[in-house]
Amino acid sequence: MTREFPFAKQDAELVSAAKGIKILSRLAWPRAVSERFLAAWRRGEPELPSPPPIAPAEGAEATEVFARLSEPAGDHPMARFIARTAKSYLQAARLLEASGTPDFLTRSLEIYGGPRDQVLPGGMTSLAAAEHFIHDTDALALSCHLAPESYCISPEETARRMQVEIDRVFEDRPLPVVVDAELTAKAAAGAEKIRLRAGACFSDADVRQLVEHEALVHAATSRNGRAQPHLTCLSLGAPRTTATQEGLATFAELITNAIDLTRLRRIALRIVALDHAVSGADFLEVFRFYLEAGYAENEAYASTVRVFRGGDVRGGVAFTKDVVYLRGLLRTHAWFLAGLAARKVTHPQYLFAGRLTWNDVEELAPCFEEGWIDLPKIEPTWLKNRHSLAAYLSIANLTHMLPVADTSLEDFKTIRLKRLRELD
After folding, report:
1. What is the mean pLDDT of the chain?
2. For the whole model, what pTM was predicted?
3. pLDDT digits (tens, 9 = 90+) for 211-250
4. Are 366 and 211 in contact (CB under 8 A)?
5. CA 332 to CA 291: how far, in whole Å?
6. No. of H helices and E strands in the chain?
7. How many CA atoms lie within 13 A of 246 on its CB side?
8. Per-residue pLDDT at 396
9. Which string of b and e fits 32-54 if b means at least 16 CB within 10 Å?
């Protein structure tokens, strides 16, 4: 006998209301803005860009639905999940309403955090971690120059290469990779397609990173959520899932050996650039920061737009989403290690069942066991290969607990227990 899902009404309402809330596409700048800015820059007449204002949302009905659903419809993990997701979309709607005003930064910080938030035990912030990483890899970066043919692959060729890899996983329902002339970001993924920015240069490493990051995490988790028989709001990319999503996607690059030094430094530089903007630097100052870091003009512009979209090009108001990559990577790695130590062998698989946070997996675990939530239909190879994943985590766990200086055997046990508690 088929069980009736007790939260079907709330789930359907949330999925319907969330369709109109698309943060990144709403905050995107038209291509014409970049053409004007770069033309003026190249003439030696630099000026702040003038992006058009963000169009208001269509009606207040969705906001009312989010507000109502933010109160759980019962004391059950799935009811609480729906409420948390609704509250996150309510925050997203208010973020969009505040675009171009000082409140935009306040609301962005509430959702994503900021560059000076603590990211590691001991008080280390995202900014400090990023600056430390950049400083430690400066010398190595100078010795890692790539030949032009390896980092200036056209978006069309990149799409072709990606498609070959993606088709091997998305056999039942294709996931096309297309080139988009209006895209500001270098790449973007949805459940139906992956877009690459026209005119961008891609590297051999980019191809592998984009397959693992965009296709096998972002697109896969969205599709796995859509395939759920009951809790279909697992398909929604609520802002509250962003840190886990980006952390998991970057972890996927790391564990498949797809990530490279250029990619890691790019993530760190985004945090430093964001801190400059929050501290008052304007668009031109952040653009120059990227040029001094070695970026080409087109890439420096695109990276600066990531900071100022929805904010104020005069400085002080920025979009802080980019802090989640480093924090998310560190937290995902720690979560996998803690799960291994606690013998939670199914939790990595649960994380791919939809757009979930690390804490969601912990709370919803009984719902998987009771059959309310299905296991993911699409999984990357590194997740399917449980033995290799366990081997990697076991070695990483031991390495993490090694003392960094001469330490007595008795002290080593103390360090090990302390670091395990930090991961919990």
Report:
1. 90
2. 0.90
3. 999 999 999 999 999 999 999 999 999 999 999 999 999 9
4. no
5. 31
6. 21, 5
7. 16
8. 83
9. ebbeebbeebeeeeeebbebeeb
